[in-house]
Amino acid sequence: xxxxxxxxxxxxxxxxxxxxxxxxxxxxxxxxxxxxxxxxxxxxxxxxxxxxxxxxxxxxxxxxxxxxxxxxxxxxxxxxxxxxxxxxxxxxxxxxxxxxxxxxxxxxxxxxxxxxxxxxxxxxxxxxxxxxxxxxxxxxxxxxxxxxxxxxxxxxxxxxxxxxxxxxxxxxxxxxxxx
Amino acid sequence: xxxxxxxxxxxxxxxxxxxxxxxxxxxxxxxxxxxxxxxxxxxxxxxxxxxxxxxxxxxxxxxxxxxxxxxxxxxxxxxxxxxxxxxxxxxxxxxxxxxxxxxxxxxxxxxxxxxxxxxxxxxxxxxxxxxxxxxxxxxxxxxxxxxxxxxxxxxxxxxxxxxxxxxxxxxxxxxxxxxxxxxxxxxxxxxxxxxxxxxxxxxxxxxxxxxxxxxxxxxxxxxxxxxxxxxxxxxxxxxxxxxxxxxxxxxxxxxxxxxxxxxxxxxxxxxxxxxxxxxxxxxxxxxxxxxxxxxxxxxxxxxxxxxxxxxxxxxxxxxxxxxxxxxxxxxxxxxxxxxxxxxxxxxxxxxxxxxxxxxxxxxxxxxxxxxxxxxxxxxxxxxxxxxxxxxxxxxxxxxxxxxxxxxxxxxxxxxxxxxxxxxxxxxxxxxxxxxxxxxxxxxxxxxxxxxxxxxxxxxxxxxxxxxxxxxxxxxxxxxxxxxxxxxxxxxxxxxxxxxxxxxxxxxxxxxxxxxxxxxxxxxxxxxxxxxxxxxxxxxxxxxxxxxxxxxxxxxxxxxxxxxxxxxxxxxxxxxxxxxxxxxxxxxxxxxxxxxxxxxxxxxxxxxxxxxxxxxxxxxxxxxxxxxxxxxxxxxxxxxxxxxxxxxxxxxxxxxxxxxxxxxxxxxxxxxxxxxxxxxxxxxxxxxxxxxxxxxxxxxxxxxxxxxxxxxxx
Lengths: 179, 713
Fold this sequence. Notes:
The complex is a heterodimer of chains A (179) and B (713). By secondary structure, chain A is α+β, with helices and mostly antiparallel strands. Chain A has helices at residues 2-16, 67-72, 162-178; strands at residues 36-44, 53-59, 77-78, 88-94, 98-100, 102-108, 117-122, 135-137, 142-143, 148-151. Chain A has one domain. The relative contact order of chain A is 0.23. The model of chain A has no long low-confidence stretch (mean pLDDT 75). In chain B, a hairpin with a 5-residue loop joins β29 and β30 (472-484). The relative contact order of chain B is 0.11. The chains are: A alpha+beta (179), B mainly beta (713). Chains A and B meet through loops of A and loops of B.
């Protein structure tokens, strides 16, 4: 009789026990936000006569290595076109969770989307060095106050062929849109 | 210098010249009258001894004339002691009968005092895991074995003894691991490479708790673990083992990431025996794990060889070579709790290739009945690279050497003294080109004040230099006492200090990985610790119990913290105190049944922040039961670790759902058949499919089943 009770107890124990961690019941928690970042871009200096496009662009790596692949794979992210000839403007970029090492304000100064781009501002909270400040977007968080200063008279270093990169990026966006 | 060493050895030789006789004998089973193979025959209070061969015979030469106690011990037999008298220039011959017993023989431990002693003679909390248990659990790595040792818990690959380490991303372990007596930490990160140790060639693992720097120097701040591999055998022996395992489906459908089942499999082939006069052990092992998590597979090869040559009965050289080649994917953290078995998007495809080997040469010479020395030298090369952009890579070569003398001038004193040192060269994209070296002198005396009362005291002075930094010295004393109230019951107390020199990785890392940028801090100071313990041990054939109360104080603990620029830097930030109590119980109520229990209570307090220490549980409980009947056996292990109350604030920022953690309740079960040359095992790990994390954002292994077969010729 005792053996039978024992045999009965074991499966009951196995079936009734707690299984520890479990996935949340809803896709997102109440505090979940679409991940990304945003803030204000401040402009100073003399605006160029010719402005075709102006955007905030974020890259995963700095210095950018194999950046073309990063762009082609859609891992670089950018904002909507920013307003021109203003002192400052709000912006936002929807970007995935994780680290973003290079956030830049890019200006298209000519009609050629593949070549006429340059960086006019970089997110850098430590201007004493030349390394841009990276950000980390936690899961379900939107980072605010990622503010960027742009000086048309004193643009930051142009560490790579940014013109070509942003050209490819926008071209890819247009292709995706057409599909 | 060479001349000095030669003269020193010569003087030791001359000390050894005395009038001697020889002892020969045969050991047989009292019931069957058959010879017993592998009996350890030791002349007590001397360094002289031997082991029986396949005919049950032994020979001990050059024994100084006099009266002695001969001690014989073997697995499955009662330990026997007989009085003998050795006459000068004569050979004494004995026929000795040993009585079989169903009870376990008390294990021999070498790590606690750098000499062989039975567990009941050890004045420090020590546990021993023996090879049979490792084999029947089908543990694939040493860290899996240590998960069931009282007072020990593993956080991912980082080991804690009584809460010593917490979690510091693999760098700078606060537990020293020895591989056949030599330090087995990498030269760059100072980490333990568990997978490089061939688990199926382990004879036993000794776990010594509390600060042990008075004998072992840096890193022995929380304890010492010595992995001792099997001896080469006189009888030729081939072993083959293969295993095949499968992970169960994740308990929650949301966590299923693979359309097919995930497997792990592998095996080994080994030879152990004499080739001519050379004792030879060769072991080749293959392991593949597809991973229960996405981006977590590995493919590895292990080769382990050991050679032993006896120049004479009292002069032996051992050579060991151990090699690991591995390719493994890297799972840093989960994407989130809803995707607990998937990595973050940016980590998919992350992979590390590594190649590691270590060698050890050890020469032991018994110069007389009361004097022997051991000289050893080892080299550990660690090379790895990942596939990040830009690529991280590191090569480290760490050389160790040691010269140890054991001298027993009379029955009251046993002296051990020695010198050891290291030389380390690192070339790494993370740390640059770095080097470090150290030298140390140590001495220990064991003083037997009365038959019941033994003191052990010692001192070690370490001098080390880390790359461009200045020389730093550390003096570490120890004092232990053991009082035997009866044959079965003893009281002990121990006091010791410890230190840990910063690892090269802590002082010089400059990298970005898994979303975190780390910068160097060459001004790091060594960590320091004091540990104190009072304990009691009771051993009889049916029950053995060990109880201990301990107090450890730590200064200058190195922790990664955010600096003002938002980057991580290793700093000496923490002063801590860990107090607690521990009880271990082994029960052998009847010959086919045994149980063991271990409970540890910890009060791990961070005095710098007046809060509980990060990654330390308050309660650790283990239970283990085994039953065997004829050739059939079953066993079950249970472990409970209370929830870590506090984790890194930093990780909360980086890891989604970092606060998702629970107490740990894990049950592993096994059954098998044990024939003479064939053994079959069936194991279920995490039987109850309990989901938990050891480190945030990393779901621990889900339920898996495996079958293994071992065949021996």
